[in-house]
Write a structure and sequence with these properties.
Organism: Deinococcus oregonensis
Domain Photolyase/cryptochrome alpha/beta: 1-121
Region (Disordered): 153-173
Strand content: 15-25%
Protein name: Photolyase/cryptochrome alpha/beta domain-containing protein
Largest sheet: 5 strands, parallel
Number of strands: 7
Number of helices: 6
CATH superfamily of the largest domain: HUPs
Structural class: alpha/beta
Low-confidence stretches: none
InterPro entries: Crypto/Photolyase_N_sf, DNA_photolyase_N, Rossmann-like_a/b/a_fold
CATH topology of the largest domain: Rossmann fold
CATH architecture of the largest domain: 3-Layer(aba) Sandwich
Radius of gyration: 22 Å
Length: 173
C-alpha cells in the first residue's frame, strides 16, 4: 500500500488527521485554477495558504508539493507519479470537496480514497450567527478554562489613550 496526502485550505496543519495517519507519505496542495478564476480571493489569503504549505514542507521529511491547476487532475497525476493505491484527505465542509473526490474517483478508479474526520475546536454544536456570541460560549473549553486576556496587564502608569479635542474642537487620538 502506497499512500499520498491531499492538503487543502482547511488542512494546513502539522496535526492534520490525514498527515498524522501517514507522516511519511508524499503530500500535495493544489491552487485550484478553475476556482480561483471564478472567485475573488485576496492576495493575502493566497499568500497565507502558500506560507502554510511551505511551513508544513519544512516540518516534514516526506515530499510536499504545490501545484496550480484542476485539483482532481493534479491529484490523479500525483497519485500515478507515486504509484499510490490510497489517497488520504481530511474532510472539508464545502460542496467542492465532494465534487473533487468524485473527479478523482472517475480519473483513478483503482485508487482508494480515505477521508479522515476533521479536528474539532470545540464540542459546541449550536448555531453560529455572530463570532463574539459563539466565542463567549466556547472560550472556556477552547482555552482550557482560561480567558484569552487573563494575565495581561497594562504597563505600570499606562492608561488607555482617551480621545481629546484639539484647538479647533476636533477629535484626535
Amino acid at each position: 500500500m502506497t499512500a499520498v496526502i491531499w492538503l487543502h485550505g482547511d488542512s494546513l496543519s502539522i496535526t492534520d488527521p490525514a498527515l498524522s495517519t501517514h507522516p511519511e507519505a508524499p503530500a500535495l496542495f493544489v491552487f485550484d485554477r478553475p476556482f480561483l478564476s471564478s472567485h475573488r480571493i485576496a492576495f493575502p489569503r493566497l499568500a497565507f495558504m502558500y506560507g502554510g504549505v511551505r511551513d508544513l514542507a519544512a516540518a516534514r521529511s516526506a515530499p510536499t508539493e504545490i501545484r496550480v491547476g484542476s485539483v482532481p487532475e493534479e491529484l490523479a497525476h500525483f497519485a500515478c507519479e507515486y504509484d499510490a493505491t490510497e489517497l488520504h484527505a481530511t474532510e472539508n465542509p464545502t460542496p467542492e470537496f465532494e465534487a473533487i473526490l468524485q473527479g478523482i474517483r472517475e480519473r483513478c478508479p483503482g485508487l482508494r480514497v480515505v477521508v479522515h474526520s476533521a479536528e474539532r475546536l470545540t464540542t459546541y454544536n449550536g448555531p453560529v450567527t455572530k463570532f463574539f456570541g459563539f466565542w463567549k460560549k466556547v472560550q472556556t473549553e477552547v482555552l482550557g478554562g482560561g480567558d484569552l486576556f487573563r494575565g495581561m496587564e497594562m504597563p505600570s502608569g499606562a492608561a488607555p489613550a482617551k480621545p481629546q479635542r484639539d484647538h479647533r474642537n476636533r477629535w484626535r487620538g
